[in-house]
Amino acid sequence: MRASLDFDGVLTHHGELDLRGINPHVFFRSPRSVAAAGPRPGVRQLAALLDCFAEVVILTARPIDHHPAIKQWLSEYVPELEECVVFSSGGRSKAVVAEELAISLHIDDDPMAASDSAPDDPRIVLWRREDPARIMAEVVDRLNRLMENGTATKVVDAARIRAVGVSSATPVFHVLRRSRQNLKIRLFDSTGRAALVARFHREAPHGDGGVHVPDIVSSTPLTMTTPWIDGDMVRDVDAAERKSIIPRAAGFLAALHALGPSDSGSSRLISCAMDAYNLCRTPDGMLHLIDVGDCTIGTRWLDVMWTEQLLCVSDDEREHLVNCYINASGHRPTATEAQDAAAEYYGYLHSILMHSKRLHTGSTSAWRRCDEIARRRRTPVTASALFSRAQGLLP
């Protein structure tokens, strides 16, 4: 499969340019106008998504002598596409040129990209004012249609793609395959975030306390592919089983934190994922930490506070978790460390939710979805066993 992206208006964003008194056609005739543009928000993730399934090329109305400037721009703003081939439409309909180049999917901001004879050309996806999450959903829909019609992709044996985490700043896609294990593809918003999550997958304890972190199947600077885990989310299991899960979660956290500094309060790699939304139980009884997209560098007590607030549902469960963790790790928090952990927890969770909203600029439904998640996950720390332990109120 070959997919193409327009340059001006899709890869680039000219919104800050003041062209009053300047003929835009004259301005864009100069290759120097390429350097004046910034990247369109979300375009790196869109390019990374396409690159998972297709050979990605650039199809632009700009002439051939602009190609060196375009390649230089790509190396600075969208390095994932730095090596891709750039084609010029030469004043012809992009739909006609796409057919000649065997392009199955083209993304453009100009309705004139479609040919006059086929204004609803299924190969053309228009990205005008839609937020990045919405355009990625549209691209997934088109990719599914192509696969249904027998078009092969770079993912061997892929049959269908499902968007399962579009409300996140790092969207997740479930790739169903005909005769092989299904896959999970996560798109990251920065190479730094992708590198940190990859580090977690490499360094985290595997199987300690019956908690497994999936192996990485493949990765690029902005994507990570892991096996798709089918099972029951911990939020759906009954109270009796939850009681047996809590010591395993505490044991995993203690083993993870032991990989960092030996003291109690220093920063280290932490999960911020051991919760009812990211912990899955498979039929063999194994627990899988299926999503560590929010892992970070912080104190062990932030990780314990996160788990206490987002995994435990009662005071007894919170007390059980904190006691199990302290016994497994050999550390107990001071009153200051517990208070700092609560402040860090609120601050970090709020920043995650706000970052997710930025992916959905202009999308009211997506903002409502983020707010719904916030209400479910941001309950006040009214009862904290970590606080009680720090203040000597628990034995």
Note down, in words, how this protein is organized.
The chain is an alpha/beta fold and 395 residues long. It has helices at 7-11, 24-27, 32-35, 43-53, 67-77, 94-100, 132-148, 191-203, 239-257, 300-310, 315-329, 335-358, 364-377, 385-390, and strands at residues 2-5, 12-13, 38-39, 55-60, 86-88, 105-108, 124-126, 158-163, 172-177, 183-187, 211-212, 218-220, 223-227, 232-233, 268-270, 279-281, 287-289, 296-298. Strands 5-4-1-6-7 form a five-stranded parallel sheet, with helices on both faces. It has a five-stranded antiparallel sheet with strand order 8-9-10-13-12. A four-stranded mixed sheet has the order 11-17-16-14. The radius of gyration is 24 Å and the shape is elongated.
Which terms would index this structure?
395 residues, alpha/beta, five-stranded parallel beta sheet, 14 helices, elongated
